[in-house]
Amino acid sequence: MLPSIQLSEGHLNQQQVKQYWDEGFLFPIPALDPEEGRSARAELEAIESDWLDNGLPLPLNTYKRVNAHLVMPLAARIAKDDRVLDVIEGILGPDILIYAAEFFIKEPRTKHIVSMHQDLTYWGIGATQGLVTAWIAFSPSTPGSGCMDFVRGSHKNPILPHEDTFDSDNLLSRGQEVRVDVADEDKVAIEIHPGQMSLHHGLTIHGSGPNTSDDRRIALVVRYCRPDVVQEVGDMDYAMPARGTDTCGNFMHVPEPEVYFGPDSLKLYEEVRRAQAKVMMRGSNSGGVSDIYSIAS
């Protein structure tokens, strides 16, 4: 297990910020206490047990895997934790929005992978420098459990051509894969453990292999952005205020949910998913609202 990097009173120092912008990622960073990370896992698994057959409009996996922060207080609470935001501020500055939050889960002894890709390919916000992804571990994320692999410096490329595979073992919405050869020696394994997090740029090429371990690989993945990020394709985009102010007006602000899967939250979720599906599935031969929301975890 790699020790967490040393923060300066909870914030990134200048050298660490430079390393992020030079390499396109940074890890392992302290986010929660290790026991808090394990407790968050227990809380999530209790939610899974309580809500699996509880009459939700969509499968529970849909809510976990896409925009969980709109309907699950656990996701919003951790995404807005000051310890996490203090780190994010070093990358984005003082004004921070939550663009998306989702639980990424690979079940033990499964073949699910994430092909090598760039996050910003289909989101409609261009090759922005104003978005960073935080990957917060609830269980060990190791090469054996299918941790992410990053390609150092690949964020200095533009958005590269991708090919849709719609592979059933691929956890991405379209099975999208960047059309460049990535040698194994160019991959950096991002091993993090409960309470630790990694950061990566939206253009960093990354993916992950199958979980060959006997434990679930569980993480909360949060996409943070600056208010000046602009949706270039869709009519409307949505974000949850986290810190600072938003004077740009590029996003419709969404509230933090007070209860799990409340009626107002579910209505908002449906509005957001339909708007985002039009953006994410544009140009897809398979495209439909349900396609990005039928993702196995």
Description:
It is a single chain. With 297 residues, this protein is of the alpha+beta class. The chain has one domain (14-290): q2cbj1_9rhob like domain (Jelly Rolls). The chain is built from 6 helices and 13 strands. The protein has helices at residues 14-23, 34-51, 60-65, 73-79, 82-92, 263-280, and strands at residues 25-30, 96-106, 114-117, 131-137, 148-151, 162-163, 177-178, 187-189, 196-201, 206-208, 217-225, 238-243, 252-253. It has a 7-stranded mixed sheet with strand order 1-9-4-11-2-12-13. It is globular, with a radius of gyration of 18 Å.
Quick summary:
The protein has 297 residues and is of the alpha+beta class. It is built from six helices and 13 strands.
**N/C terminus separation:** 25 Å
CATH architecture title:
Sandwich
- Low-pLDDT stretches: 287-297
The DSSP helix count reads 6
Q: What is the alpha-carbon Rg in Å?
A: 18 Å
Which homologous superfamily in CATH is the superfamily?
q2cbj1_9rhob like domain
User: Biggest sheet, strands in spatial order?
Assistant: 1-9-4-11-2-12-13
Kindly identify the CATH topology.
Answer: Jelly Rolls
